[in-house]
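User: Hi! I'm working on a homework problem where we have to compare a predicted structure to a textbook description. Could you give me the structure for the chain below?
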Amino acid sequence: MLAFDHRRSLMTSFFGVAGEPLPEDIERARLAKRLIWEGFLRAREEGAAHGSAALLIDITYGDHVIGEARSAGIRFAIPVEDSGREEFGFESPRWADLLGGIDPTWAKALIRYDPEGDPAVNARQREALRELSDHCRTTDRGFMLEVLVPPSPSRLEAVGRHRGRFDREVRADLTVRGIAEIQETGVEPNLWKLEGFEEPADYEQVAAAARSGGRDQVGCIILGRGEDAAAVERWLRAGAGISGVVGWAIGRTIWWDPLRAYFAGADSSEDEAVDRIAANYRYFVDVDESAVARRA
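Assistant: Happy to help. Predicted structure tokens:
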């Protein structure tokens, strides 16, 4: 899955827009989405992940892509969360109507969830997610839940303020606990979109939690978190062939640098940006396929 549902971070971190985006900012964002989409199409034309390829795309700046993806028969997810918030909230009070009108393969929600965090915040997030989960179940729509597990200040202090140690030593256990708490509330995603791990054993315990209680058809997909290609490759290789790990959703690692070069005017044409995005997407498809084949 090629992920480019970024909205607030695209404006603030990529384009450097501090306040309300101007019409020209919006047009640049729409152009960025189109170039990413064209890179995806080029990669598919060159044989990358034809049957399993999918998109994660927003309606804010990517509505034109959604129409073309639907016409091409490509599966896609759209986000319903209000972008950039620390606590989950719906982007629109009409989220159910939007899902019905757009008819995505999956409704996607992103939350930041620490099972040792504020109990009231966690409870509010779970209740909102249950509403979304129930809606997807009754309308026969897929539900993708992206769970980020940020380190609390105390947790970070305990590992010497080293984010890598937190990821390696702590995050898998917190993720398992978070999955269990979310499931206990009646939230039932078809896909859990989770941060990558360095060790296969971490994937095994997390996937087992996602599939516990007879949830045999539930899958986990690995997100890229905007990390460099080497880190994402390690995560894909560690998760390859693990039962319950069914794919990946990578975004900024694929398209950030090609688009940065293009919008900076660094002698990069639209076609060159598209070609680099396609090559980056093909690279991760090849990494995943080769890793799975080697472990089979």
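For your comparison, note the following. The mean pLDDT is 95. DSSP finds twelve helices and eight strands in the chain. Good luck with the assignment!
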